[in-house]
Task: structure prediction
Amino acid sequence: MSEAKIDHDDLPVHAKARLAEMRERKLFTSDLSVNEFVLVREAGFDPVGMVMGVSIYQIAPQIPSLRSDEPGRELVDTTKALYHARELAMNRMEEEAEELGADGIIGVRLTVNLSTDPNRVAWKQYRAWSKWSSALGFRRPMGINAGYWDGWAQLAAQQWTQYTQQMGWQQVPIPPWQRPTGQAAYQLGTNTAEFIAIGTAIRHRTGWSATEKHYRNKKGKPFQSDLSGQDFWMLIRTGFRPVGFVMGNCVYYVPPNMLQAPARSSEELHWYTHALYDARELAIERLQDEAEDLDATGIVGVTIAEEQHSWRTNPWNIGNAALQTGEVIELFVIGTAVVPTESGGELGKPQLVLSANDLPPSKVEGE
Amino acid sequence: MTVALSELGVTEFLTLARAGFLPCGLVTGSCVYSAGSQYTWRVHTGEIQTLSTALRSARMTAITRMREQAIQLGADGVVDVRLEVEHHLWRGARQVAKCIAVGTAVTFDREHAPHALARAPSLCLDNGHPFDSDLSGSDFVTLLAAGYRPITVAMGNCVYGLDPRTLRTYRGKDDEIREYTTAFFDARELAMERLQEDLFEHYPRDTPDCPTGIVGMTVSEATYGGSGASGPPIVEFMALGTAIAPLAADDPRRTHTRVKPTMVVPLDR
Result:
C-alpha cells in the first residue's frame, strides 16, 4: 500500500552538515549502550552514526455517518495517513544512513508523540488542579464534573489567588498545574502528532566478501530493524540477517451503538469483536505483504499494538468521546523481516531470559 | 584520615575495584543562569539563539566546576555523571536555569589493583586532567575490556520555537506539516552537530585524546521554561553521550578473550 513519494532532497541543512562532518572526521555516534556496542563489533559490524527521521503530521479523521444497523468499517484515509507519516520518518532515517554508506540500522525506535493535542494537555491540567484543590479542601460547586468544563480555569485561578493571599506571598507564582513538566507537552495543534524514527547505522567491517555479497536488502537499501545490539548479535550468530523493518496498520471505526449491549443480557458485543478481529487481520496481512516484498523467510519480534486514537476527544465528554462519537482504533503491527545468511551459523543454546520490558521498542508511545 | 564519598552501590563498587579503580569522592558542580525575560521570546519558527547559548553555557560551567573538584581530589576520572536542569521563573518574569552536574570521582589504585594491571598507564587525559563520562561503573569496566577509554561527556543543544500560525493553512487536511517537520528535524540535527563541533574544538584531531566515537547517545527534548500548554511551543533538544577513544595497543586492560554477552534486561525502551 506504499504510495509515498520519496524525495531525495528531503534532509534539513544541518543533517547533511552533521553527516558530512562525521564522515570527514571518522567519528561515529551511536545510541548503543556499552554492552550493545561491544556485541555489534563482535558480530563484525562497526557503528557509523546515529540516524533519525522526523515527520509532523496532521491527521483529521472523517467520521462516516452510518445507518444504525451498519457495523463499523475501516477508515482508509486515516490508515493511509498514519502509515504515510511513519513511512516518511523511516525514509528520512534511511536517507541519512545512505549518506553515511551504512549497511543497516539497528535499534530503531519508532515513537509517536501524541502529547501535542491541546485537549489532552488541558485535560491533564484539569486533573492536576482537581487533585490539588480537593487535597486543600476547597469546596467544589455543583455541576463541575459534567458541564463545567469552560469554567474550571476561572475557578482554579480564583482558588489559587485565595491560596496565595492566605500564605502571604507577595508575588503570585505559577500554579502547580500549569508548571512545565519534565516531559515535553507543548501544543502544536489539534489532531497533530509527531512521528520520530531513530536508530544506529552500522556497517560491516570487511564489507563485501565471497560468501556474503552485502548486507543491504533486495531494494539496495540499508536494512532497518528494531532489534537491540544483543538480539542482533544473537541473530547473526545463528545464521540469519535482518532485511527490513516491516509494518502494517489499520484504523477502524466502530459506531457508538455497537459499543453497548443491545439488551440487558450477558452477551458478546459481536460487531465490536468483529471490528477488532478484522482490523488485526488486515494489519497483519499488510505486514506479511511487506515481508514478502523483501523476499524474507520470516519475521521476528512482531508486536501488535492497539491504540485508541481519540483524536476527537471533546472537552464536554470529559475524556470519553467514544460513547458519543464512536471509537477510532488503530491496530499497528511491526517486526523485523529476516533471511538466512549464506554462511549459516550454529544454533546457540537457549538462555534464561527475564522479560521485563512490557513496552517493546517499536510500540508506539503515548496514551 | 580522609573519607571518600560515592553514590555507587556495592556491585558497582566491587566491579570498579576488580579493575583497580577506587572511588575518591562525590564531585558536583552547579550553575544558576539567568536566561532573560520570558516575554521577549518570539514565536517565529526558528532557533532561539540566546536561549540555546544560555543553556549551553550553564551546562558547560556546571561540568567544568565538577571537573575542577575532581582535579583537586587527584582523580583519574569521573564516572556516572548526571546532568540535571531545572527551570524557574523568578519574580514573575525572569527566566532562570539551574544546572547541576553530579558524578563519582575514581582513581587508579596501583597497590591493590590486580597484578596484571599494576603497570597499566593512567587513564588521565593528555593535559593531566581527569576524564569524565556518564557511563555507570560496570559499563566503564566493559568499555575498558573492549579496548576503549572514555574521554568526556559530549553534549549539544538547541532551543527552537514554532509559529502556531502555520497551522491555519492545514485546516482539516490529512497532511504532513512540512514547516514543523523541517523545524524539529533541523533542531535535533543541530543539537547533534553542536555536540560534534564542541567535541572537536576541545579535543582536535591529531591530539592523543581525539575521540573516535560516541556511545550511549540520546537526544531528549523538554519544554522550555514557562512555555508549554499555555505559551508558544518552545522546545529544547539536547544530545548527550560519552566520547570514547581506543586504548594504547599494549595496555593490559584490553582483554584478548572473546567478549561474552551478558544478560540484559532493558527497562528503558
Remarks:
- The CA atoms of residues 90 and 154 of chain A lie 44 Å apart.
- The first strand of chain A starts at residue 28 and ends at 29.
- Confidence is low (pLDDT under 50) at residues 1-7, 361-367 of chain A.
- The domain at 13-117+187-340 of chain A is CATH 3.30.110.70 (Translation Initiation Factor IF3).
